[in-house]
Amino acid sequence: MNRLLSGVCAGALVLASGAGAALAGDLPGKFEGVTVDVKLIGGQQYEKLYERIPEWEKATGAKVNILTKKNGFDIDKELKSDIASGSTNWCVGWNHSSFAPQYTGLYTDLGKLLPKSEIDAFVPSTIKAATIDGKLEMLPRAQFDVSALYYQKSLYENADNKTKFKAKYGYDLVPPDTWKEVTDQAEFFANPPNFYGTQFAGKEEAINGRFYEMVVAEGGEYLDKDGKPVFNSEAGIRALDWFVNLYKA
C-alpha cells in the first residue's frame, strides 16, 4: 500500500498551468497574491510535514488556505462528494494510490508542470505508483505501509507478570519473536475494559491491509498472479481467526 500526498486538481488547472513555467524554471517559483486552497489528510504523523507550509509561503509569496484536514476515509468521502456535486474548485488535494483510480479526471498531470529533474529525484517505483493511466497524479510522500509492534516495557519488567506468565505458558515473558507469542502475551495482558492486550485498525482499508499481512504471514496469498482473490484458504481462515479471537479476548 502506498501513502502518497498531493496532486493539483482539475478545477484549478488555470492556476496550475500559470504556475508551470515558474515551477519548471525556478522552483519553488513566485506567486505573490495567490491563495492555494487545499484539502489534506489529517493526523499527528502529518503535522511535521505541514509545519513546512509557512516556509513555502515565505519562499513563494503565496498563501495556503486549508479547507479540510480529515482522516483518509473521511477525506475520500469528501472528494467523491465534490466530484459528484461538481464542486472541485479547490487547488491541491490528498491522494492515495489505493484510492486514486476512483478519482478519474479530478487531478491534472503533474508531469507537465514539474521539471523532469524534480521528478527524477524521486525513487522510480514511487513515481510509477503515483502514475495513473499515464498521468503523474501525486507527489509521493512514501511507498510503504509498515505495521509496527510496540510493547510497554514496564509490563515485561514486572516480576509478578514474569512469574505468572511462565507458569501459564511455559516460557519466559520477553518481547515476542513469533505471532504465537504475540497472541499469548496479548491474551495474558488483556483485562478489559481497564486494559487491552493489543489493538489493531478496525475497519475499511486499514483492517483489510492488516488481514492481507497476516494471510501472507500464515503462508497464504491474498490475490493470485491473475489478480483474483484466493484468501479463502486455510491460511486465510487462520489469519481471520487471529483477529476474531483476539477481539473476543
Compile the SSE list and pairings.
Layout: E1 4-5, E2 7-8, H1 13-25, E3 35-41, H2 44-50, H3 53-60, E4 63-70, H4 72-85, E5 92-93, H5 116-120, H6 124-129, E6 131-132, E7 135-136, E8 139-140, H7 153-157, H8 159-169, H9 179-189, H10 204-217, H11 234-248
Parallel strand pairs: 3-4, 3-5
Antiparallel strand pairs: 1-8, 2-5, 6-7
Helix pairs in contact: 10-11
Short descriptors:
2 domains; 249 residues; D-Maltodextrin-Binding Protein, domain 2; elongated; disordered N terminus; two-stranded antiparallel sheet
How would you portray this structure in words?
- Residues 1-24 have low confidence and may be disordered.
- Helices cover 44% and strands 11% of the residues.
- The protein is elongated and about 70 Å long.
- Strand 6 (131-132) and strand 7 (135-136) form a beta hairpin.
- The longest helix has 15 residues, at 234-248.
- It has 249 residues and is of the alpha/beta class.
- The chain has 2 domains: 4-140, D-Maltodextrin-Binding Protein, domain 2; 153-248, 3-Layer(aba) Sandwich (D-Maltodextrin-Binding Protein, domain 2).
